[in-house]
Please model this.
Amino acid sequence: MNVNCVLVTGDHRALLVDTGSTREEGLELRQAVETQLEGRALVVVNTHAHYDHCFGNSAFEDVDSFASRGCVSDLLGSGSAQRRLAAESFQANDPGFADRLGSAPISVAHRLVDNSETLDLGGVRAELRVVGRGHTDHDLMVVLPELGAVLAGDLVEEGGLPALEDAYPLSWPLALAGLLELGTELVVPGHGRPVSPQFVAQQLEQLHRLAEWCRQQLEGGGSLAEYEGPFTSEHLKTALERARIELQAGSARGEGAGPRSGPLP
Ligand SMILES: [Zn+2]
Model:
């Protein structure tokens, strides 16, 4: 499902959240965004390092840009490996897209966010908050207090189940609980339609049950058949593998300890 790239406009700045999957998508997005700027300065932020959210970055290299330290570290450490795997996965069904994806330059944000950063867009604040472990080890969400909204990246997924391949399933429910504590009326997921806090609460419950199941499995009890919920046996295997990695990486949140993370040069 297509990624949600969101433009938030204030009186004197506009913030674009995520840049698409390829340089071509990024350029197309930039063209569309520029028709909306009306003299405002543009700022870009990446929610996380998955290709569909940030491989369009190279179209915005001259623009002030932000991402969590872990996001930049991940892209620099394993962005090219991710690019190769993602391109291979599309080769059979969409070879044109696979080629564009495979040739996307790895471009990272200029400014690193360690915990949080507030951007004044002019009458609208955008609070960039590093959540830590959830969908990845470096998710960043954008809170818009004046608009009563939060742009959640892939911490929230509409139209499909949460993606677990790089996830920290034991911590993800905590990340969503933190999001709900914000009390915002509108949540824009990384994919799919905007959702309500009630939707997020349901997804939290699904992830909580998944985390509990993983904990039971890792403590030696239970079997695959004992899980009741929307995740398939394939998802459960992925979740369990990720939970094992999460436990090995330790309990501290947001340290960037996942296997795909790499150090900054
Ligand atoms: Zn993602």
Summary: DSSP finds seven helices and ten strands in the chain. Residues 18 and 46 are 5 Å apart (CA to CA). The two ends are 33 Å apart (CA to CA).
